[in-house]
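Protein in question quoted for reference:
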Amino acid sequence: MDIQAYIQSGVIESYVLGIANEQEVAELQRLQHEYPDIAAAVAKCEAWLSQTLPSFAEPVAPPDKEKIWAALQEPAAVINKGAREIPMQPAGAKRVAMPARYVAAASVVLLLASAAFNIYLYGKYTKANQEYLGLLNERTNLLSDNKIYQTKLSTLQENMQLMTAPEMLKVTMPGIAGKEQSLATVYWNTSNKKVYLMVNNLPAAPAGKQYQLWALVDGKPIDAGMLEDCKNLCPLKTIERAEAFAITLEKEGGSPIPDLSQLFVMGKVQS
């Protein structure tokens, strides 16, 4: 018996897939005991199939299984009527017939192998694509953060230039009695009379309230502007002259006269 021709005939795949007939099953089971190579081939096919199917196989409903079985059997019956044996060896060697269902069994195995390989490649592609998107997103975030930092640095440099300019007068406004933790600083340009405010430490204004800066001119409070949502050096109104500056907490939008019960900080202008 030509063992290799028998192994390559497709009967083993048919047996493992469960589509071999009773005679083929009995013959294969007998040959496994007689020929170790055949037993090894069966074990190898069964191991490969058990490892491959769980990765992508889905249960087949009984009606669909019957249709698939019928589709495999019908071509075999038609082809086998006039089928001749397919030469598996050179002339003079023993020939082994390959029924159509063996061809079908071998095709199913090849299909499973192809599907498994495609799933493997798709998994690799998906992982690589996810890693690429992750790196791209990380790069975008870094560029965005870098732009934010550059903007903050540029603003800080501009503020430093303003505060250290020779014509800039600094007026420190410490907290009044009972509000000693409060602190703010006015930077007053003695040349163009523009006023800038830096909040060092003020409680967050409650809903409906807003901080208002006042300039004291001849003992009379003059509105110097409202403190908006500003994180750095905040530009306010232009003040021609002042003896002192103060901040009160007023209703949102400001008030024509300060509420002295809500006075937080105050500082005199030092000539």
